[in-house]
Amino acid sequence: MDNMRIVMSLTADIDVTKLIEFTKNSGLKFYPSMIWIVSKVVNAHDEFKYSWDKDGNLIKWDFISPSYTDFHKEDENFTKLVTVFSDDLFEFHNRFMVDKEQNKYKRAFVENQPSNFFDVSCLPWIKYKHFDVHVFDEGVFLAPVITWGKYEMEQGKYFMPLTMNIHHAVADGFHLSRFFIEVQELINSLSYKKNKAL
Description:
This protein is an alpha/beta fold. The protein has helices at residues 17-26, 30-43, 89-102, 173-189, and strands at 7-15, 50-52, 58-60, 65-72, 77-82, 108-109, 117-123, 145-149, 152-154, 157-167, 192-193, 196-197. Helices cover 28% and strands 31% of the residues.
């Protein structure tokens, strides 16, 4: 059983220049837009949607939604909440902003969150080389844990570290590599015209 607790972890620098430009032109915020980017790629692949039901049976969700943190500068605490995934960036962004506003006075975990989630976190204060988490130690958490750090300009473009941790029982290096490739492709495909994503 110990070999079933192996975690695959990979960090890659992602070019987010186009996402920064797109969000500014579209009146969107970067954080929920980046959450949508990784959510869309995660939901495109079955290996990221496995979990266990209450009886311990392996299941695959139809979709999974991001569980993320909302940082409060005034008291340096967090709210942990889930916004239901939408395939449409603007719809998801609207849901995110509503959830953020409705839960702005809560701290820690918001109650009654859905079970079909994956974990997202952000460290916007530092550009790191690698980031690791240990929620997989008991061998039962199968969903991805995705983290990104501060973006910085390098040679005229903005690069940001992006990390995925995933249980080796459901994914391997191929699946991780495809995730990063498709995140970059999705960012590169964004275009702005009359407030619509094309």
